[in-house]
Amino acid sequence: MLSSAMKSLNPKVDIVVFSTDESKCEPYNDDVAYVYPCYSRFERDYSEFLETLRDLNGVDILHVQHEYGIYGSNRELIEALLQAKREGLAKAVGITMHTVDHPYSPRANVTLKFQSWLNELDFVVVHSPLQEFELHIQGINPSKVYRIPHGTLINPYLCRTREELCRSLGIECDFEGVILTIPGFLRRDKGVDILIESLRLLSDLKFTLLIAGEAQEEEMARMIETSEFKTILIERYLSSDEILRVVALADAIVLPYRDKKAYSVSGILHLSMGSLKPIVGTRVPRLIEFYQHAPRLTVPPSDPTALANKIRWLVNNYDYALAYMTEVYSYAARTQWFRMASRHIKTYLNLL
Question: Which CATH class is domain 162-334?
Answer without folding.
Answer: alpha beta
